[in-house]
Design brief:
transmembrane, Alkaline_phosphatase_core_sf, 583 residues, 15 strands
C-alpha cells in the first residue's frame, strides 16, 4: 500500500477516534445513527409536525370570537384568504426576510388567537367583546374574583397558566409559520401551483357566495377581525373626546338646592342596588317561579305593613358585571358603558342624583358599601358625607365567595350605625347589596334579625352551602342558585323595610345588570327591574304617569327606559326645576 494512503487512513482513524471521545460528538453520532436506522419513523414524525403546524395556522385563521360560533363541523371547513396571501409572500421573499416575516406574522396570529379568546370570555361574562384600549385594567378584577370564589391557590395557578399559555401560543404559532414557509420554499414549483389553484377556488367561492350550512366557504375572518379591532380602537378614542363634552352638559346642573326635590323633603330616602338582579330573574322559566313567588309574597307582606310599590324596567349600560357602570349610569343620567367614560364622569362636576340630595342641604347622606375593600374616592361624586366599607361594619363571619358579608347583616349594620341615629335632618342612603353576586355559591340564608350579632352565625350556613366548583360549570345549577340568591336579597331588603321603615321612608331599589350568559342566555336583554316603595301615597302618586306596575314585580309590558333616563325623570317627578348647565 502506498505511503500516502497509509497516512490518510491513519489520519481518518485518528480524527474519528477523537470525535468519539467527545461527549457532544458521541451523542450526536449516536443520535444520527439511530435516526439513520429509522428513516420511515423520522419522515412520519416530520410530516406529523408539518400537518400539525398547518392545522394550527388554519385553525387560528378561522377561529371565531364567539363560543356560539365555535362549531367545527362547518366553521373550520372554510378557505382563509390570509393563508393564500401568506403563501404567496413566502414564495417571493428571499430566505432571511421570509423567516423574519414568518416568525412575526406567526406571533401576530397568536396574538389574534388570544384576542379572540378574550372576546369569547368577555361576551360570555359581560355581553360585549374585549376592548384592547380600556379593558386591560379589568383583568386584576378577574384575578380577585377567582381568588374570592375559588381560593388563592387556584388564582395563582390560573394566573401562571394564563401567562404560560400566552407565551406558548405566541411561540408555537411563530414556529408553525416558519416551518410552513420552509416547506413552501423547498417545494416552490408545487407550492406556486397550489397557491394559484387555491386563489382561483377562493375567488370563485366568494363570487358565487358558496356556503356550507349557511357559512360562506371563502373566509377573510382574520383580516375582518383586524379591521374590527382597528375600528373599535378608533371609536374608543373618539368616544373619549366626545364624552368629555357630553359630561359637561347637565339639565339640572345649575339648579339651586332650594329647587331640587322639594316634594321629598322630610323623607328618609334609600337607594339600593341588588347585584345581578335582571329581567331574567323574573321571566326566565328556571329562575322566575321562585323569584316571582318571593316578589308577590313580599308585596303582600309590605302591604300589610302599610307599604305600597310601583315597578318598571330600565335598560342597563352594562351586562354580566362591571356593576359600577350601572350604578353611575343610574345616578348620573349619562350612559356610562365603559371604563373611560366612568373615569371621565368621576373626575367631572356633573351632578349625581344622590348629590342632588346633598346639594339641597336638607339631607344627611351616607353610603353602605360592603363590596368596597379599599379606598373609594367615588364617594365625592355621589355626594356622600360618609360611607362604610367592608371593614367598617364589624363583620366577623365568613365571606360568601366574592361577597364579603350577607345582605341581611349589611342592612342590620346600616340600621345600627346610621339609620337609627337621631338626626336633625332626614337621611339619604346609597346601599349596594352583594349577596347575589356570581358565582352564587355558597348562598346565605335568612336568620332571626335579633340573632345576627357580629355575623358569626353565618359560619355554619357558609360551610354547609355549595362550593363554587359545584355549580360554576353547570348552567342549570347556576340558574337555580342565582334565582335563590335574588330571593334572598329581595327578602332581606324588604324585611328590613318592614322592620325599620316608617311613614317617611322611601325605598328605591333596582338591579345593576343582568347575570352572565351562563344564567341569562346568549340573547338576553339588558333590562333590570326597578321599584319605588313608600307608605305615603303622595310619593307614588307623583309617578302615576309613568305607567309602572303596582307591586314589586313589573309586568312584562311595563315601560322600559334607558337607565340613563332615570335621574332626570325622578328629579322632575319630585318637583325639581331644570336650570341647564351647557358646559
Amino acid at each position: 500500500m502506498p505511503v500516502f494512503m497509509r497516512v490518510r487512513q491513519q489520519s481518518d482513524t485518528t480524527d474519528t477516534g477523537t470525535e468519539g471521545t467527545s461527549p457532544e460528538g458521541g451523542l450526536r453520532s449516536r443520535l444520527t445513527s439511530r435516526l439513520d436506522r429509522h428513516p420511515t419513523a423520522v419522515r412520519n414524525a416530520q410530516w406529523t409536525i408539518t400537518v400539525l403546524a398547518a392545522v394550527l395556522v388554519l385553525g387560528a385563521l378561522l377561529l371565531p370570537n364567539r363560543l356560539t360560533t365555535l362549531q367545527a363541523d362547518r366553521w373550520f371547513t372554510r378557505i382563509p384568504v390570509e393563508a393564500i396571501i401568506g403563501a404567496a409572500v413566502a414564495l417571493v421573499l428571499p430566505r432571511r426576510p421570509r423567516l423574519v416575516v414568518a416568525a412575526l406574522s406567526g406571533a401576530a396570529l397568536g396574538a389574534m388567537v388570544i384576542l379572540n379568546i378574550l372576546d369569547m370570555e368577555f361576551v360570555q361574562y359581560l355581553g360585549r367583546p374585549f376592548n384592547v384600549v380600556l379593558d386591560w385594567e379589568l383583568l386584576p378584577d378577574a384575578q380577585s374574583y377567582i381568588a374570592d370564589s375559588m381560593g388563592k391557590a387556584v388564582e395563582v395557578a390560573a394566573t401562571i397558566g394564563v401567562f404560560v399559555l400566552i407565551f406558548v401560543v405566541l411561540g408555537v404559532m411563530a414556529l408553525a409559520m416558519v416551518r410552513l414557509s420552509n416547506l413552501l420554499a423547498r417545494n416552490k414549483q408545487i407550492a406556486t401551483r397550489g397557491t394559484l389553484a387555491a386563489t382561483v377556488v377562493w375567488v370563485t367561492c366568494s363570487a358565487l357566495g358558496l356556503q356550507i350550512a349557511g357559512v360562506p366557504l371563502a373566509s377573510d375572518r382574520t383580516a375582518g377581525a383586524l379591521a374590527v379591532q382597528a375600528v373599535r380602537v378608533r371609536d374608543t378614542l373618539r368616544d373619549e373626546a366626545a364624552f368629555q363634552k357630553v359630561a359637561k352638559v347637565d339639565e339640572f346642573g345649575n339648579t339651586p338646592g332650594s329647587q331640587l326635590l322639594p316634594d321629598l323633603r322630610g323623607k328618609d330616602m334609600l337607594f339600593t342596588f341588588i347585584e345581578s338582579y335582571g329581567r331574567s330573574a323574573i321571566e326566565d322559566p328556571v329562575e322566575a317561579p321562585g323569584v316571582d313567588a318571593t316578589l308577590d309574597a313580599r308585596t303582600k307582606a309590605l302591604a300589610k305593613a302599610g307599604f305600597h310599590a310601583k315597578s318598571g324596567w330600565l335598560t342597563s349600560a352594562t351586562y354580566g358585571g362591571s356593576s359600577w357602570l350601572g350604578h353611575s349610569t343610574t345616578m348620573s343620567g349619562l350612559w356610562i358603558s365603559n371604563q373611560q367614560r366612568y373615569r371621565t364622569l368621576m373626575a367631572s362636576d356633573h351632578m349625581s342624583l344622590t348629590e342632588a340630595f346633598k346639594k339641597t342641604g336638607a339631607w344627611d347622606t351616607v353610603g353602605i358599601m360592603p363590596g368596597v375593600q379599599k379606598s373609594w374616592p367615588e364617594s365625592k361624586f355621589y355626594g356622600l358625607d360618609s360611607y362604610r366599607n367592608a371593614f367598617q361594619m364589624g363583620y366577623k363571619g365568613p365571606k360568601f365567595s366574592w361577597s364579603t358579608m350577607p345582605d341581611q347583616y349589611a342592612l342590620q349594620q346600616f340600621q345600627n350605625l346610621e339609620h337609627s341615629k337621631k338626626r336633625n335632618k332626614p337621611l339619604m342612603s346609597l346601599v349596594i347589596l352583594t349577596s347575589s353576586h356570581q358565582p352564587w355559591a355558597p348562598i346565605p340564608k335568612m336568620v332571626p334579625w335579633n340573632d345576627l350579632g357580629d355575623g358569626s352565625i353565618f359560619k355554619a350556613i357558609q360551610k354547609a352551602g355549595n362550593k363554587p366548583s359545584d355549580i360554576i360549570a353547570s348552567s342549570p345549577k347556576s340558574q337555580a342558585e342565582y334565582g335563590k340568591s335574588v330571593q334572598y336579597s329581595v327578602t332581606a331588603l324588604t324585611q328590613w323595610l318592614e322592620r325599620y321603615g316608617n311613614d317617611n321612608t322611601v325605598l328605591v331599589f333596582l338591579g345593576d345588570h343582568q347575570p352572565i350568559a351562563r344564567v341569562s342566555g346568549n340573547h338576553a336583554s339588558r333590562d333590570v327591574p326597578i321599584s319605588i316603595v313608600a307608605k305615603d301615597p303622595k310619593v307614588l302618586d307623583k309617578i302615576d304617569s309613568w305607567g309602572w306596575t303596582d307591586g314589586l314585580r313589573p309586568a312584562h309590558n311595563a315601560p322600559v327606559w334607558k337607565m340613563s333616563a332615570f335621574r332626570d325623570k325622578f328629579l322632575t317627578a319630585y318637583g325639581s326645576t331644570p336650570h341647564p348647565k351647557k358646559g
